[in-house]
Amino acid sequence: MILASQSPRRRDLLSSAGFALEVVPADIDEERLPDETPPELVRRLAAQKAEAVRATLRHVPDDRLLVAADTIVWIGGEALGKPCGATGARDTLRALSGRTHHVSTGVCAMLLAPDGTCAQREGFVETTDVTFYELSNAEIDAYVATGEPLDKAGAYGIQGAGALLVKRIEGDYANVVGLPLARLVRVLGGLMGDEEGLVARALREGGAHA
Known about the structure:
This protein is globular. It has helices spanning 8-16, 38-54, 85-96, 137-145, 173-177, 181-192, 195-209, and strands at residues 2-3, 22-23, 65-75, 78-79, 100-112, 118-132, 166-170. Strands 1, 2, 3, 4, 5, 6 and 7 form a 7-stranded mixed β-sheet that branches. The longest helix has 17 residues, at 38-54. With 210 residues, it is α/β, with parallel strands linked by helices. Helices cover 38% and strands 24% of the residues.
């Protein structure tokens, strides 16, 4: 599989499902368009990343799969990017304290033809709602001191110490990590004409890594 993303979390999730990956990052303009909602933005960016990488490929992987994704953390229609240092992380965490925010991942999956053109394509957006506990200043300071929030959109990592901030999740946990893996594997299986077989293989691989 070609993974059009540098995210180590996406790479780990797909590797855990048994996919052999070649990482080819996409270089595109990620600026949000006027009046574009966060889900619309990530859907468009995922599609553009997939096409940008497909157009530069010199070979087609054995499974003929290419996956691109883009994730956004947002609340009230406003995107929460990576914080600007410790002060920015504290401000973001205070804004999330006691509130529900959203994590949307746009995914574009392609089945490539032998000549590198796109034989089939499917895109989707997965959104998970995440509710934080009310956070005290001491809790925020302690979390920021770990350094974990500084390179994370929304200033937290749910797969790390940031899990202690979360009161409730509605939706796909893996989506908050960076990729809605269960849905994606089913989409990939559909593109390959063997959804059940691909899901079964991913389950075996996941059990082997447990």
